[in-house]
Design goal:
By secondary structure, the protein is an alpha+beta fold. It folds into two domains: 6-111, Ubiquitin-like (UB roll) (Roll); 114-133 and 141-249, Fumarate Reductase Iron-sulfur Protein, Chain B, domain 2. It has eight helices and seven strands, in the order ββαβββββααααααα. Strand 6 and strand 7 (110-111) form a beta hairpin. Helix 3 (143-153) runs antiparallel to helix 5 (177-188). The longest helix has 22 residues, at 228-249. The radius of gyration is 21 Å and the shape is elongated. The structure holds iron/sulfur cluster (2 copies) and FE2/S2 (inorganic) cluster.
Length: 250
C-alpha cells in the first residue's frame, strides 16, 4: 500500500483471446466499504495506470452486485472469489486480479463459462413440465425435502468450484461439482425425478462423476456454501445403483 488511504491493484490483462497477457498496476483512493467491483469501476472512470500511463478500462463481468448472478467470479489474490463481495479492507495488498484459468479468455478478466451451462443441459438440470396448459398444483414436498433441496438451489453458477477443482480440466472433461449438485437437486424433486435415470446415465463414463478425486477444494471455495461433497457422495450412490440395475436388465 502506498499509504493507508490508497489501494494498489495488479491486474492481468489480455486484449483478445489470442494475444499475450500482461500486467498493469493501478493506485486508487480507498473508500470505506469498497469492494473489487467498485475498484474496477473507479479504474473505468479514470483509466490511468499507477505509472501515469493512460490505458483502457478493464473488461470484467458483473451484474447484480450482490453475489446472486454469479457473473463476477475471478482470481483475487490467487483465489476464486466473487468481485462484488470481496471487500478491499479484507484483502492483502497489492491485490492481484486474474481471470479464471480453466475457461477460455474473452478479454482481461472476462472468461467464457458456457461449459457449465452445457454440462447442465447434459444432465437435464430442470423440472420437465408441459407449460402449454394449466397442470394445477405439483406434488407436495415435505419440509425435510425442502430443507435438503434449498441449499442446492442457491447455486449461482459462478464456476468457482470448477476453477478450484484439480479434476476439472481438458484431460478428464469432468462435469464438476456444481452440475452434480444440480443432479441431486432435480432428482430429489417429485416432478423432476421423472428424468432421474437419464441424469444418472449422463454422469456415467468419460467426464462423469467417477472423475472426482474427492479433493474437497470445491466445498471450501463455494461462495454459497453448497453441500458439494455430500452431494457428490449422494449422487455417486445413485449412479452406482443405476449401473447395477442396468447390469441386471441386460
Ligand atoms: S471433491 Fe475435489 S475432485 Fe471432486 S469436484 Fe470437488 S474439488 Fe473436484
Ligand atoms: S456450486 Fe458453489 S461454487 Fe459451484 S457454481 Fe454453484 S455457487 Fe458457484
Ligand atoms: S455481480 Fe452478481 S455475483 Fe457479483
Amino acid at each position: 500500500m502506498a499509504n493507508s488511504k490508497s489501494v494498489i491493484l495488479k491486474i492481468k490483462r489480455q486484449q483478445t483471446p489470442e494475444s499475450k497477457p500482461y500486467w498493469e498496476e493501478f493506485e486508487l483512493s480507498y473508500r470505506p466499504g469498497m469492494n473489487v467491483t467498485s475498484a474496477l469501476m473507479d479504474i473505468a472512470a479514470k483509466p490511468v495506470t499507477r505509472q501515469g500511463k493512460p490505458t483502457t478500462p478493464v473488461t470484467y463481468d458483473s451484474n447484480c452486485l450482490e453475489e446472486i448472478c454469479g457473473s463476477c467470479a475471478m482470481l483475487i489474490n490467487g483465489q476464486a472469489k466473487m468481485a462484488c463481495s470481496a471487500l478491499i479492507a479484507n484483502l492483502k495488498q497489492p491485490i492481484t486480479l486474474e481471470p479464471f484459468t480453466k475457461f477460455p479468455i474473452i478479454r482481461d478478466l472476462a472468461v467464457d463459462r458456457s461449459v457449465l451451462f452445457e454440462n447442465l443441459k447434459r444432465v437435464k438440470a430442470w423440472v420437465p413440465v408441459d407449460g402449454t396448459y394449466d397442470l394445477g398444483c405439483g406434488p407436495r414436498q415435505s419440509s425435510e425435502m425442502q430443507e435438503e433441496a434449498y441449499p442446492l438451489s442457491n447455486c449461482i453458477s459462478c464456476t468457482c468450484c470448477m476453477e478450484a477443482c484439480p479434476q476439472f480440466n481438458d484431460k478428464t472433461g469432468f462435469v464438476g461439482a456444481a452440475t452434480i449438485a444440480q443432479v441431486r437437486l432435480f432428482n430429489s424433486h417429485p416432478t423432476g425425478s421423472a428424468l432421474k435415470k437419464e441424469r444418472l446415465k449422463a454422469l456415467m463414463g468419460d467426464g462423469g462423476i467417477q472423475e472426482c478425486g474427492y479433493a474437497q477444494n470445491c466445498v471450501e471455495i463455494c461462495p454459497k456454501e453448497l453441500p458439494l461433497t455430500k452431494s457428490i457422495a449422494a449422487v455417486g450412490g445413485q449412479v452406482m445403483w443405476q449401473a447395477i440395475k442396468d447390469l441386471f436388465r441386460t
